[in-house]
Amino acid sequence: MTSFRSTVENMSKLMDEMGITELDLERQLFLGLYRKHIHLSKQHAVAAPVGFVAQPNKANEECAVTGHALKSPMVGVVYLSPEPGAKHFVEIGDTVHAGDTVALVEAMKTFNPIKTDIDGVVKEILVTDGAAVEFDTPIIVIE
Q: Residue 5 is inside which H or E element, if any?
């Protein structure tokens, strides 16, 4: 009998090969039904602490990050729009006001709004939609 863990690992490999990013699994166990939602993302957060220099994907290019960085308050997956295919909460150049929602971080199947604490203009969006983020990862820079 194949363990549930190895089933998930095999499905994860298949998802990666097929370009699938989400999968819901169910398994009937002796004591009840076990459900697992898997979200894969090849996109990694492209972020740098404010005041440091990040090395972007393009060779020999540098980008300095300055301004007020809104950071993830938790480990999770960041979403830049309220639902798949919807318009992003903010774009570079948008004016925002304290209290505006600029992103969501999903953690433990709960979507947590990331709200700006200052008024300003969105200078940089440091993550890609669906990227995994760590605690304190800068998400958006506002000036």
A: helix 4-18
Q: Are strands 22-29 and 110-115 parallel, antiparallel or unpaired?
A: unpaired
The pLDDT value given to residue 9 = 74
DSSP secondary structure of 8-38: HHHHHHHHHHHT--EEEEEEEETTEEEEEEE
pLDDT of residue 14: 73
Q: 139 — alpha (psi -120 to 50), left (phi > 0) or beta?
A: alpha
Q: Are 142 and 120 within 8 A, CB to CB?
A: yes
pLDDT digits (tens, 9 = 90+) for 104-132: 999 888 899 999 999 999 999 999 998 88
In tens, the pLDDT along 43-55 reads 433 333 344 344 3
C-alpha span between 93 and 124 (Å, rounded): 8
Q: Tell me the Cα Rg of the chain.
A: 18
